[in-house]
Structures are given as C-alpha cells and as structure tokens.
Amino acid sequence: MTNTLPDGNSPLIDCRSVWKVFGQRSEAAIKAITERGLGKSEVLKEFSCVVGVADVSLTLNKGEIFCIMGLSGSGKSTLIRLFNRLIEPSLGQIFVCGKDVAKLNAQDLRATRARDIGMVFQNVALLPNRTVLENAAFGLEVQKVEKERRLETAKKALTTVGLADWVNRFPNELSGGMQQRVGLARAIASDPDIILMDEPFSALDPLIRRQLQDEFRELSKTLGKSAIFITHDLDEAIRIGDRIAIMKDGAIIQVGTAEDIILNPADGYVADFVAGISRLHLVKAHSVMHPVAAFTAARPDLDVSRFSRTSPEADVDELIHIFLDGGQDGVAVLDDGAVVGVVTPRSLLQGVKGKEPGEATAF
Amino acid sequence: MDIQDLTSAVDEGIDNGLDWISSNAGGFFDAVRLVLETFYNGIAWLLQAPPFLVIVAVIALLGWRAVSLRFGIAAAVGLVFCALIGLWPETMATLALVIAASVLALLFAIPVGILAGFSPRLNAVLTPILDMIQTLPPYIYLLPAIALLGFGPATALVATVVVAIPPALRLTAHGIRLTPRNFLELGEASGITPGQMFVKIRLPFAMSSIMTGVNQCLMMAFGMVVIAGIVGSGGLGAAIYDAIRTLNIGKSIDAGIAIVILTMILDRITEGAAKDRREAK
Predict the structure, then answer these.
(1) Looking at chain B, which residue has its C-alpha nearest residue A170?
(2) Among chain A residues, CA nearest to B181
(3) pLDDT by residue (tens digit) across B230-259?
(4) What are A's interface residues with B at a Cβ cutoff of 8 A?
(5) Which of B179, B182, B185, B186 is the best mutation test for A, with the most CBs of A within 10 A?
(6) Same-domain status, A271 and A148
(7) Residue A52: which H helix or E strand, with range?
(8) Per the domain annotation, does A39 fall within a domain?
(9) Which residue in A153, A318, B98, B250 is deepest, having the highest Cβ count within 10 Å?
(10) Spatial separation of the C-alpha atoms in residues B95 and B234, rounded to whole Å
(11) CB contact under 8 A, A125 and B183
C-alpha cells in the first residue's frame, strides 16, 4: 500500500476484482466464489445471497469522466458506493488516490470522503432548513473550515454553477435543475479530485437534463476533476463519458469509448442498447474509411488526389455535408498531411446503418 | 378463595413495602420533596412576584411572536379575565406547576427519547412501560406519591411528571428515527463524525416532532395538575376541588374557564413554535 498521491499516470481510482454479496450467508458465498469460482446465479441458488457487484475491475484516470451505464438492479448504485466505502466490499481491493480504502481507519476514511471524493445524489439531499449557501458550504462545515472562509468558497462554487443570485434562498424555492446544481456546487466546494455522480440528472426533464449534462462535462474539464458518473441512459453516458462501462447483473460486460461500444458491441445485450443511438456524431471517418491502398486497387479509375479532404476525427455528420457540397465519389482522410484512407458514399451509409460482425467495408 | 388470599397477600406486601420505604428512607424522600418544592416555589415566585400586567404583557408578546398579533391580544384579554374573576394567584400557581412538571418531564423524556430513537432494543423495553403509564387511570400515580412525599405540590409534581413523560418520549424517539436515509448517506459521504451527524442532520429533522412532543407534554401536564388538586397541588386544581367539595358550581365554572384559557394559550404558543420549524423547511 502506498500513501503518496498518484502522479499524472497512476489512476485515481483503481478497482481490482471487487465483489459485493448481500445476504446472511455472504461470507460462505464469498468463500465459495474464491475457492470454487461460483457465478452469480449459483450463489443465489446455493446460499440465497444476492450478488450486487461481481468481479468488477476498472480504473478512473486523472481528468477522465467514466460513465457506468446499467439498468436498475444492475448493481451500478452499489458499485459507486464501494468507492467511498458507503458500502463495504466483500472481496477485492479498491485504491483511491493510491490508498486502499478498505484499510483506512474511521478518521482517515472521513478525511478521504471529505477531501478526495465528492458525491452528488439523484435525490440531491439538500437540507431543507438551510439556505442554498449553507447547503453548498456543508462539506466544508463538516471539515470545520471557519465560517467566513467556507461561505466564501461556497459562494464561488455556486457562482461557477450559475446560482450566484440564489444564495440566500431555501432549497424548496428552487426548481429541480437548480437544486441539482446546488448539489454539484456542494460537491466541488471541497475541491475533491474525484466526483461520484449517482444518477444526478435522472429525475429532470429532458431539456434541462441535456443542458446540465453539457455544463457538467465542461465544468469538470475546466476544473480538472475526474468523475464516475452513474446513469441508466446510454444517450447520457455517450454525451458525458470519455469512457463508458456497460453493467449487467453486477458485472461489467464492456468498457470503451462511445465509438468502441457503438461499432463493436460486446454481445447482443449491448447491441440492443446501441441500436437506437444516433451515430451521426459518434462514428468517425477513421472507422468508415477504406485504407488508401485497398481503395486505389479496387477503383483505379478514381483520382484520390482530387477528392475533398478531412481528418480521421471528422464525424458522419461532417462527412455527409462534404458529400452533399461536393458531389464526389469519395472523401480523402488525411492524417499528418498524408492520405490514409478514403470514405465512399456506400461505406458512409454502412457506417450509419451499423456494420454486422464480419461484414466487409463496401466500396 | 386461594387466589383471593394470594391477592390480598400481594397487596399487603406492597403496602408494607411502601411503609418500610417511607419509614426507612424517609430522609431521602424528605430531601426529594424539598428539592421539588424549592423548584416549584422558584418558578411560582417568578410568576407571582411581578405585577400581573407584566406577566400578561410577556405572555401576549410570546403569543404575538409565535402565533399572530391577534392571538397575542386575545391571550392578554383572557389573562386579564382570569385576574378580574379573582383567580390570578391560582392561575399563576397552576402555570408554575405545569411549567415545573413539563421541564422535569422533558429533562427525562428528551434524552431518553433520543436514546430510544437510536436503540430499537431500548425502545422495545420502553414501549410496554409507556403503554402502561398511558392506559392506567392517572389517579393511580397520586397514591404512591402521597405515601412517599406527603400532601402538597411535590406530590402533584411527581404524579404530573409521570403522566407528561410518555408523549414527549415517544415523539422524540419517533423524530430521531425519522431522519431520511438519503441525508444519512449525504452525511457519511461528506466525512461527517457521529457527533456532527446528530447535531447537523438528525436533530434538525427531529425538531418538529420533538416540539410536538413538548406541546403534548404540556397538555398532559395541564390535565394532571387539575386532578392533582386532590393531593394539595394548590392553584386552580385546588380551587376546583374545593368547589366540588362545597358544591359551589359557580366557582368551579370560574376556575374551569381559567384552566381553559391558560391551556389554550400554552397550546397555541408551543404549537406555533413547532409549526415555525416546519415552515422553515
């Protein structure tokens, strides 16, 4: 166990083969899992214990927003509570900022929760008898920061989330979206490295939700925060997350960028999820293009050098615009000044539709 | 027959026990009596020493702050009425007894209620005891009290305290148990200490229930101090008891009206204080 703060490369949260088993015979169940390698359903049958989290390993890197997407009952809310030990893991190790959280004593655990990890809840949990400002200062108050300083810091945090004019109001005077901003201000007022977001926007109406998603992403990037973001909404995960983990029955079944997951779903379950997702801004030129050599071999009649040019990061939406403007047979994809590939109308359509596994790129 | 013998044997045992306690621990109970009477007399002196208009003004002001201006004026008018019918000293004596009994009852009920809110086991032990206290006829408490403490306000005080404790204790425990789970989780996730959790999260949520408990405690005390007129509580209770003994119906109605006025004033003021807290939420 190391106690030093992680450098730029080591992850802020490092979660290694973590299990959480609920039930009276959970210890016996854990023993069976380690010794006999039992799975979730066998544990339920043999020990009548519910496996909340099954063998989850993941890392949160500095500056990253990591979304965990799963339906209700998938164990995502249990998982996020393991990171700040609101729930004790049954098995496995979790390192937060280099510290093994399971080994922290009560005082160190409080310090870690107060300074390293902020948390935002779905139900916000604003204290009704306190003003917005006092609510935002709650974390600092718990840390016994003197009153003047904590109110000043809280006011800054509220200004950051756009609530400077509401500091002296009471929570019940605020709309749901505003209340959730106060929750966020409360979490960032203590200046933690990590923010745990437990379905914070799920109860908001769609327009406000999208606005807050964008604001949250921008805010955490400007402040250099890292976040674990729990959601049951894949659109939200795609909008916010740098990386996305799909969770089902307590286990993580796929981790990757939005594009990875959309283009290469790990199984039918994930494929069903991504089926309804618009690919316009997710699929990029580099994944729908033909390598330049293959293209020139197949279509020697076309001159690649006369095509419009774009970058490998151009999304499908941009590519469609280029085709609509130019009316050509292809778009050249340039990386570092050299043509690396060509997107044709057919390969673009295939990218929009979604390629079946093993299907070749069409010319 | 056997059972009747047994019953009278048990009754006799209790009587002998009480006799034994009062003759052997007489010094102790004299001391308890002295402390209780000093406490009662202190509060009574505070209420009876100033000119009656000062007290009326203070209560009217409280009524205004806690409820409304109209209620403040109504309270003042009611109290002046008590003075006009010649029952001012008795009204204040009763108020002193109610306040003394409620303070003592709350000093016990609130801390124990808090513990019961945290400990389901303590709560399980207390619940049947509280049930018993609340279902037995309140006269019962006068007898052991009079046996140990004699005739006078100390006895009335003890019997009243016993009756006033259960509602305050139950409502305090209920308030502590009421803390929403998500706020406990917020506290935990913020790195809160157990002491801070109690002061900053549990207590504010419990406050309105505790204030309702205080209100109920006062109401029970009012009911009991009148009954306690029979053991020499003094005040309006004694006035009513005297009126009953001499079949002086007019006087008993006067004293009854004074009781009603005083009860309504205290009820509305403490209820107003409880409501204030709810509205702040």
Answers:
(1) B281
(2) A125
(3) 888 888 888 888 888 898 888 888 988 999
(4) 84, 86, 109-115, 117, 119, 121, 123, 125, 127-129, 138-139, 141-143, 170, 172, 196
(5) B186
(6) yes
(7) strand A50-60
(8) no
(9) B98
(10) 11
(11) yes
pLDDT at B276: 63
Minimal C-alpha gap between A33 and chain B (Å): 29
| Separation in Å, CA of B280 to nearest CA in chain A | 6
Residue A229 lies in a domain: yes
In the block, tokens 């003004």 appear at B57
Report the amino acid identity of residue A279: R
| Domain end among A238, A256, A275 | A275
Alpha helices in A161-244 (DSSP H): 176-189, 206-223, 234-240
Judged by CB atoms closer than 8 Å, whether chains meet at B281 and A123 is answered as no
Minimal Cβ distance to B189: which of A113, A129, A172: A113
Phi, psi of A22, deg, nearest 5: -100, 145
The domain B2-280 having CATH identifier 3.30.70.1400: the answer here is no
Which residues on chain B are in Cβ contact (under 8 Å) with A143?
Answer: 191
Could you tell me how far CA B254 lies from the centroid of its own chain? 23
Query: Of A254, A275, A296, which residue constitutes the final position of a domain?
Result: A275
pLDDT band at A227 (very low <50, low <70, confident <90, very high): very high
Calculate the alpha carbon distances from B218 to B142, B156, B269 in Å: 18, 15, 11
Taking 50 as the threshold, does the pLDDT of residue A275 lie above it? yes
Amino acid at A127: L
Q: CB-CB: which of B182, B192, B280 is closest to A142?
A: B192
> Token pair for residue A349?
């359509």
Beta strand A251-256 pairing with A338-343 = unpaired
Give B177→chain A minimum CA distance, Å. 17
| Residues A331 and A217 both lie in one domain | no
Assess B200–A contact: CB distance below 8 Å, yes or no: yes
Domains of chain A: total: 2
Does residue A28 fall inside a structural domain? no
CA distance A95 to A83: 8
Residue A197 sits at φ, ψ, to 5 deg, of: -110, 110
User: Using the beta-carbon criterion (under 8 Å), do A125 and B186 form an inter-chain contact?
Assistant: yes
User: How many angstroms away from the CA of A247 is the closest CA of chain B?
Assistant: 23
Residue A220's domain is classified under what CATH number? 3.40.50.300
For residue B210, which residues of chain A lie inside 8 Å, CB to CB?
Answer: none
Tell me whether residue A361 is in a domain: no
Which residue in B182, B192, B277 is closest to A125 by CB distance? B182
For B68-71, the CB contacts below 8 A with 24+ separation are B71/B268, B71/B272
C-alpha A212/C-alpha B183 separation (Å) is 23
User: Directed axis angle between helix A176-189 and helix A147-160, to 10°?
Assistant: 130
Measured between beta carbons, the chain A residues lying within 8 angstroms of B201 are 127
Query: What is the chain B residue with the closest CA to A83?
Result: B189
Supply B90's token pair.
């008795």
pLDDT tens for chain B, 281 residues long, are 577 888 888 888 888 887 888 777 778 888 888 999 999 999 999 998 999 899 999 999 999 988 889 999 999 999 999 999 989 999 999 999 999 999 999 999 999 999 999 999 999 999 999 999 999 988 888 888 888 888 888 889 999 999 999 999 999 999 999 899 999 999 999 999 999 999 999 999 999 899 999 999 999 999 888 888 888 888 888 888 888 889 888 888 898 899 999 999 999 998 887 776 545 44
Range of the domain at A246: 61-92+101-275
At B20, list the tokens: 């034994």
Taking the C-alpha atoms of residue B241 and residue B118, their distance in angstroms, rounded to an integer, is 43
Per the CB < 8 Å rule, is B191 touching A143?
A: yes
